[in-house]
Amino acid sequence: MQNFVFQNRTKIIFGKNTEYQIGAETAQYGKRALLHYGRGSIKKSGLYSRIVDSLKKEGIEVVELGGVVPNPRLSLVREGIELCRKEDIEIILAVGGGSVIDSAKAIAVGAKTDRDIWDYYTRKAEVEDALPVGTALTLPAAGSESSTGSVITNDENNHKSDCGSELLRPVFSILNPELTFTLPPFQTACGATDMLAHVMERYFTQEPDIELSDNMSEGVMRTIIRNAPIALAKPNDYASRAEIMWAGTIAHNDLLGRGRVEEWTSHFIEHELSGQYDVAHGAGLAVVFPAWMQYVYKTYLPRFVRFAIKVWNVDYHPGNPEKTALEGIQCLKNWLKSINMPINLNELGVPDNRYQLMADGAVRYGNIGHFKPLTSKDIVKIFQLME
Amino acid sequence: MQNFVFQNRTKIIFGKNTEYQIGAETAQYGKRALLHYGRGSIKKSGLYSRIVDSLKKEGIEVVELGGVVPNPRLSLVREGIELCRKEDIEIILAVGGGSVIDSAKAIAVGAKTDRDIWDYYTRKAEVEDALPVGTALTLPAAGSESSTGSVITNDENNHKSDCGSELLRPVFSILNPELTFTLPPFQTACGATDMLAHVMERYFTQEPDIELSDNMSEGVMRTIIRNAPIALAKPNDYASRAEIMWAGTIAHNDLLGRGRVEEWTSHFIEHELSGQYDVAHGAGLAVVFPAWMQYVYKTYLPRFVRFAIKVWNVDYHPGNPEKTALEGIQCLKNWLKSINMPINLNELGVPDNRYQLMADGAVRYGNIGHFKPLTSKDIVKIFQLME
To answer: Could A8 and B8 be called an inter-chain contact, meaning their C-beta atoms sit closer than 8 Å?
Structure first.
């Protein structure tokens, strides 16, 4: 086990009707809030008015900025930063999914600095201050509700990039599984895929002696795998929606990665895909992850054998562990198909071949990969496995 | 899944040589620290001087209070409170095991109030303020390094009682598994038993639909069960010591109890035992927990069947689930025996029968038990099962 530091400040407020607590929680951080959201689904669902009522009851002045889209844009972030300065905003409330939360985090950093916000997403500056962000989550997927990360797309050059800091963990996050009953099946499935990927990015490591986090990670993966199809079949089933929502947070709150070398290659490759083609992040991961596995599994076979046995209940083949490992990868693909995720670039709707461009993009800060170090050439081959 | 709130502020600094970071961490909270410890083992091991050097390097004034004993005493807590006031202490550093940390937490509360500290341990007052506590853990067991709780024994009347508050979570805890290499086997085994009990107190619930925390809890239990015998056989084995140390924190940082009704009956009963006879807490739990299981398992058999299958790998007996459940309890007893824990009152060294006195003590604030509500009469019967 490697040395590590673990701290996560986010207060998780989980369960039915918890959105009514947003006013009281927000009031602890200030009286002027920016309410940040997407394209209006929270108005249709009635969530918007419950949130605003709760805030007004606590005497909080609300300034609004809607319009966040999936793969959230730098241009809207810049608009939010201006608004925060003009309106003396003290806390940003993100009501929505990971895109809204990531956008809010970027605004929170930008509002506290004179530097250009994109510098923080291109390794030119490190976060030293940020406004507090509170969230009410409507789409369990990205784990941004208690993570250090934010991913933004620069709409001038299609460059999708991330920024990370402990200061970006939300101060509170409200998680009511009932708010996810109305999610379209595609979004539910993309969310489940994304959170499974967050566990897998930490699970696939060559680090020995990480039994506790292996055991916990396998438990989280099995929970996602069993519950996503239930939620798809019965959208109003509170039990499975709750398991998925809580799993999405645990998958990405950093607990499962402590003591291990983490991977993140599939995420880097997927960011190139969705930067270029604006595909849904979860759907992109469904295509990238199995191809990455296929390309690297021989590097350290025992890890893939364990994945097959402990996560997918595959029998161990004493004379042929490679068969066990490959069965595990096939189980993952079958599960993705069963929840209607694409598993190749064609199904994902990618119209052309920009492999070299994307591979070069993925290594723009140097070669990637810990499980197996990868060059741009390797990544082109991984794209070919997605065909 | 029940509604819940989860937040844990403690910064965990885990791994080799991490004790050298105590000065820099402490300096964030003040320049005057009370160094609280036990009966001198940290001086023999050299840890004491490494800690003091690190603190001095940061210009921190150190006031000392040693002498904490297992089942830490109220009288020493009172002494510590006086010392904090006299010396204008800004942070308390607990270097040792759970007893030292619990004692430090009590001092931290007492130093910030004019009320008698024992009021906070007898449900007469709630914690509203406390000095920050930092820890360097030497005995993984109690989980106090990131928990809300503190347990103190009033040496005037042998009453052992607890106090809990978010304000009692340490601000940082330093966990170096190497510091546990020299633990006597009995303490290693008591620690493993205590942390297993912390998971079990949360695991045995009648709450349905708690799959994620069940899966994670079972993973943590299996980790403790597999690694404790390894650490006993090879005291200097870093891998198993690290698994145990991290498991001890996870077992009691509240993560595994969220969404569930928690139990804690065996702990309440054990507090009476160690209040009366000053036995080691872990050894007491080894005697109490199986007896409690034996008394309540029929109340909700499926939970004990799952425990047997998922934690102990017992085969499910389709025609006789009770047999499966009882095999699980027997596996626990066998494991406790294998690590040389007592499993009856005689082996624990309890010289006489104060069952009624202890049973009355356990229900002094009302009947206890969620899995099965218990009266004083029930608890006497549970004591009889420990014979």
So the answer is: yes
CATH number at residue A115: 3.40.50.1970
Select from A17, A174, A178, A215 the residue whose CB has the most chain B CBs within 10 Å, as the one to mutate to test that interface: A215
Contact A212 B246 (CB under 8 A): yes
* pTM for the predicted model, two decimal places: 0.96
pLDDT at position B91: 98
Our count of domains for chain B comes to 2
Q: A7, B3: Cβ pair inside 8 Å?
A: no
The mean per-residue pLDDT over the stretch A360-378 comes to 94
All residues of chain A having their beta carbon less than 8 Å from the beta carbon of residue B211 are 223, 226-227, 243
B157 and B213 both lie in a single domain: no
**Residue A213 forms beta bridges with which residues?**
none
- List, for residues A210-249, the tens digit of each pLDDT value: 999 999 999 999 999 999 999 999 999 999 999 999 999 9
B118 shares its domain with B232:
no
- Measured in whole angstroms, the distance separating CA B87 from the mean position of its chain's CA atoms is 30
Mean pLDDT of A80-99: 98
Q: Quick: pLDDT tens for A146-200.
A: 999 999 999 998 888 999 999 999 999 999 999 999 999 999 999 999 999 999 9
A222 and B242 in contact by Cβ < 8 A? no
In the A/B pair of chains, how many CB contacts fall below 8 A? Answer: 120
DSSP states along A252-295:
TSSGGGTTS----HHHHHHHHHHHHH---HHHHHHHHHHHHHHH
ipTM associated with this complex: 0.95
Q: How far is the C-alpha of B230 from the C-alpha of B240, rounded, in Å?
A: 6
For residues A85 and A78, give the distance between their C-alpha atoms in angstroms, rounded to a whole number.
11
Quote the mean pLDDT of chain B: 97
Give the three-state DSSP class for A13.
Answer: strand
Tell me if chain B has a CB within 8 Å of the CB of A246: yes
| Alpha helix ranges (H) inside chain A | 22-27, 41-45, 47-57, 74-87, 98-110, 185-203, 211-233, 238-250, 265-277, 281-296, 301-306, 312, 321-338, 345-348, 355-362, 376-384
pLDDT tens, B267-294? 999 999 998 998 999 999 999 999 999 9
Contact B242 A10 (CB under 8 A): no
- Examine the domain organization and report whether B338 and B219 are in the same domain: yes
Distance, CA of B304 to CA of B246 (rounded, Å): 26
In angstroms, the CA B317 to CA B323 distance is 7
Q: How confident is the model at residue A275 (pLDDT cuts 50, 70, 90)?
A: confident
| Contact check, Cβ <8 Å, B11/A15 | no
How many whole angstroms separate alpha carbon B249 and alpha carbon B20?
20
A239 at B interface, C-beta within 8 A: yes
pLDDT band at A356 (very low <50, low <70, confident <90, very high): very high
Q: Which residues contact B3 (CB under 8 A, 6 or more apart)?
A: A14, A15, A16, A18
Question: Among residues A128, A153, A179, which one ends one of the domains?
Answer: A179
Q: Minimal CA–CA distance to B359: which of B378, B346, B345?
A: B378
| Residues B120 and B233 both lie in one domain | no
Residues 6+ apart with CB under 8 A from A2: A207, A259, A260, A261, B15
pLDDT in tens, A21-76: 999 999 999 999 999 999 989 999 999 999 999 999 999 999 999 999 998 999 99
